[in-house]
Amino acid sequence: MDPNADADLMWIAREGYLAPVPSPWIQCTDSEGETYFYNKETEEKKWEHPMDGYYKEMYLREKAKKEQTDASEKREPVEEKAVDGIEIEAVSYTHLTLPTICSV
Q: Is the pTM above the cut of 0.85?
């Protein structure tokens, strides 16, 4: 996560950082002072918080939604014209589908 590019998604990092350790996991410290997590039921040890995967997935989903929204709103200039001395920029909107108008 880039704090500058993803400033609007930093709430996910904060929420993940503050997330409680879910049961049956407990937070432990080894003899060198390093934090790890221990599952009392399965006896599994992890060096990452048990909820890290959940928050990483949430971040990826939210980032993908943001990128999709950004891409759909992207404007691409097509050409510039002058009408009666006024410059007009024709724009292509990649997210719009306009109906075809036919005369009969």
A: no
